[in-house]
Specification:
Elements lengths: L3 H26 L11 H79 L5 H32 L5 E3 L1 H12 L9 E5 L10 E3 L1 H17 L6 E9 L2 E8 L31 H11 L3 E7 L3 E9 L8 H12 L6
Parallel strand pairs: 2-4
Antiparallel strand pairs: 1-3, 4-5, 5-7, 6-7
């Protein structure tokens, strides 16, 4: 709350209060003394106007001070509520990881024992198929819990910033992507500019940035088809480096584009494809921790482009209002025209 508002109001009212005090003293000490002054009507009108104006100024200033104090108090309360919600969420994810880890470990061990027992019996094809299905679901839940805990840790992790060469990092991601399941059936290309100058360095945690881009490429491979094309590209974009991962895959329905950054988000077309729904949320958190922003454009049946902006150190934001507007539009998931 703004503590200077009462002091400012007191300073404004001080002359009036002094006049009242002098009047009271005169009335008490010299009640019979009377002073008469001759004043022109025009001057009297001006004086009355000035007094009314001063009164209005006092009222407006007081209301502005009160409004500013209320807004500051509401902003502080909102900030505290957001911080508390974040802490509650982290505690919940930590508790979920703790509560599910041991039962899942026991389930997987039991399933392994059952599998060994079935191996010694005959005519158990149906049972083995059911066991494989249950085991796969147990593994999926295990990965999900692990990813949720990793996401929670990332939000609270202290990041050690150092200069990162994105050109080299993207080349390494492209090489590593060749080992992804299904990557051999896709055409994966990296396009990083070298002329007339290379990309500027960004500040960040190199391992986390590698994980973020690698997750985007893995998603592109997963949600594309044999023969599709994937591109990893980068360029300068004002005060940031823009990294994009594009594919000619199955795309995302327009009504689902705005939901893809949320934890556990799984679209209709993705439900038949193995995954936990954490990959893009992980990317969003990593990029946000580096002061960047994300966006996605997609056409169902044609492909998807995921964009990541990472700030370049030392470059001022000359168009912050435009950037903020673009961020709100992009995170809302604007589809390509």
């Amino acid at each position: 709350m703004n503590r200077s508002a009462p002091g400012t109001l007191l300073r404004i009212l001080l002359p009036a209060l002094a006049g009242v005090a002098v009047g009271v003293v005169l009335q008490l000490t010299e009640p019979r003394v009377r002073l008469y002054a001759a004043i022109a009507p025009a001057l009297l009108s001006v004086i009355i106007g000035l007094i009314c104006t001063a009164a209005l100024v006092v009222r407006v200033v007081a209301r502005q001070r009160i409004s500013a104090a209320v807004a500051a108090a509401e902003a502080a309360a909102s900030g505290r509520a957001a911080a508390q919600a974040a802490q509650d969420r982290l505690r919940f994810l930590a508790r979920l990881d703790h509560e599910l880890k041991n039962p899942l470990t026991a389930m997987r061990a039991g399933l392994a024992n059952v599998d060994q027992a079935l191996g010694r019996l005959a005519a158990v094809d149906g049972a083995r198929t059911a066991l494989t299905s249950v085991s796969g679901q147990a593994d999926r839940i295990t990965r999900l819990v692990s990813d949720l805990r990793r996401l929670a840790d990332l939000e609270a992790l202290q990041i050690e910033m150092a200069p990162v060469d994105l050109s080299k990092l993207l080349g390494e991601v492209a090489e590593a992507s060749a080992g992804l399941p299904g990557a051999a059936d896709r055409s994966i290309r990296a396009n990083v500019p070298q002329a007339p100058w290379p990309l500027p360095l960004v500040d960040g945690d190199r391992d986390l940035l590698f994980v973020a881009v690698q997750n985007l490429v893995a998603n592109a491979v997963k949600y594309s088809r044999p023969g599709d094309t994937l591109e990893i590209r980068a360029s300068e974009d004002g005060d940031a480096v823009l990294v994009e991962v594009a594919d000619t895959g199955i795309g995302i329905p327009a009504d689902e584009v705005g939901q893809v950054w949320e934890e556990l988000a799984r679209g209709r077309a993705a439900r038949a494809i193995p995954g936990t729904g954490i990959g893009l949320a992980l990317v969003r958190v990593i990029v946000a921790r580096h002061g960047g922003r994300v966006a996605i454009r997609s056409r169902e049946g044609q492909g998807t482009v995921v964009s990541v902006w990472l700030p370049v150190p030392g470059r001022s934001r000359t168009a912050s209002a435009v950037a903020d507007l673009r961020q709100r539009r992009d995170t809302a998931g604007e589809t390509a025209p």
